[in-house]
Amino acid sequence: MNIIIGRVLRVQGRGNKGKIDLRKHTDSVALMIPNRYVSLSFQTGRIDKSYPTVCGHTGPVLDIDWCPHNDQVIASGSEDCTVMVWQIPENGLTLSLTEPVVILEGHSKRVGIVAWHPTARNVLLSAGCDNAIIIWNVGTGEALINLDDMHSDMIYNVSWNRNGSLICTASKDKKVRVIDPRKQEIVAEKEKAHEGARPMRAIFLADGNVFTTGFSRMSERQLALWNPKNMEEPIALHEMDTSNGVLLPFYDPDTSIIYLCGKGDSSIRYFEITDESPYVHYLNTFSSKEPQRGMGYMPKRGLDVNKCEIARFFKLHERKCEPIIMTVPRKSDLFQDDLYPDTAGPEAALEAEEWFEGKNADPLLISLKDGYIPGKNRDLKVVKKNILDSKPTANKKCDLISIPKKTADAASGQNEAKLDEILKEIKSIKDTICNQDERISKLEQQMAKIAA
Questions:
Q1: What is the pTM of this model?
Q2: Could you give the CA distance from residue 77 to residue 109 in angstroms, rounded to a whole number?
Q3: What pLDDT is attached to residue 47?
Q4: What is the reported pLDDT for 378?
Q5: Taking the CB of residue 403, how many other CB atoms lie within 10 A of it?
Q6: Given strand 73-78, what is the order of strands in its sheet?
């Protein structure tokens, strides 16, 4: 399936037949890196049918996520059970891209969620309909953590916390779980966070609390705020309306504003999260005429600070993508530091190996006072380890990057069995070639005699 890449950081929702189909684009270069531009004017128009695409998957593309530490790298999950990581050329696509940098294979069913680690370079999470969460080191193409026994039903969404030490999940069994992926432990869990049968969503906030959306038993849409240290009762619980659309939350940690985009709705509601009751404060609603099939969200460093732009969405219609810009009116032309506190920059705070070893770090912040000036992105290089050179390692008391319920000895035994199988096949092929060489030699001798 094809991915037509425009200026969408992440689309929540599904495009037509699994394809993200953007029929509108901006300025002369239709593919631009989402965090690159600070000041721009939108030009609308239809994309030519021959426009280059990213088209390596054999099934519909279900989710995409731009890498927060490299503006040229995007990950995609698909119904073909694979995750692919792509390197987009610096100046955009001129030809369709069919070869990913790396293909990550480990799921047995379709992959509906991909999410980059917020602070560690080359760490990518994927979740599939096999109810498993896999955390990859993209730099080596390895699956280093496999959480395959924590969910009994479909995973609706996964969210990293601020420093990437924990994840929270919402699943079809109506549970919200907070998980330490390296210890492979469930830190907190709430059954029936929302009692309705419709899908839920759960995201981490900057202060460590968890924000959820879901449905009541009477099919009313709800939002709730939870403290992971005590999830018996929510900090706040609000009922919205009786619409059927799943509420997709988008969170700005700099201003503590949450935007709720209902799938199939034609509006965006936004709320401020505070430490004072009622904790979740309704601010306003943006309304339009046409319903949204999905929604993309621009990172803060891609906004126009000169126009006091605080959020930019990309509303996915059936045949087009519409930018929605939200601004705060200010008379002064000076930089509004209350709207733009230092925000997460593109530099990773940790390398993948450091995070897998147990280190944590908050995002490295940058100022937007002079606008965001992108630096040179380094190429994503994947160095796969040679399994033939790997040596069995001794069992450790706590191996943070081992696959659960599979010891090092078992993995080593499997590798040795696979190696024996490969060696036998190589020997068989060599024997066949040797026999053919002898046969060819005899035939050549016969030809020489006939010719004489």
A1: 0.77
A2: 11
A3: 81
A4: 65
A5: 18
A6: 61-66, 73-78, 82-87, 102-105
